[in-house]
Here is the input.
Amino acid sequence: MDEIESKLKGKTLIVYWHLLRSSGSSVGVREVQRKLGFSSPSVAYHHLEKLRSLGLVKKSITGEYSLAEEVKVGVLRMFTRMGRFMVPRFLFYSVMFTTMLIVYSLMFWGANNVYNLMVYVFGFMGSGIFWYETYRVWRERPF
Here is the structure.
């Protein structure tokens, strides 16, 4: 696992991210080159072969590459896959906290007491922190 984490960086990580988003379909060298904006197919081939040597992708007889194993290293630990989409794990907490705050506000709208004030203070702080972390992780995505 340490070897994978040390070699899964830069453009290799971007190619791996692209394969994760491909959701089980195989991709060719030229497709990777075009989609990721590499200068030549040999750059895409180099990174795909690097991923293959790490055991993360497999190559078919037709020369297409597909995901063999999904690993969570580096920034990938902060994301989860939902079909073709890679979303930050904090997104679920952000949505949950915000939904709970909205539902509480709708249920206890007219009650003005110190308890409601505390709920709103902590609710807004929690929601704000989770949304900030979601945004921060989203900006760190490799692609």
Remarks:
- The chain has six helices and four strands.
- The radius of gyration is 21 Å.
- The mean pLDDT is 88.
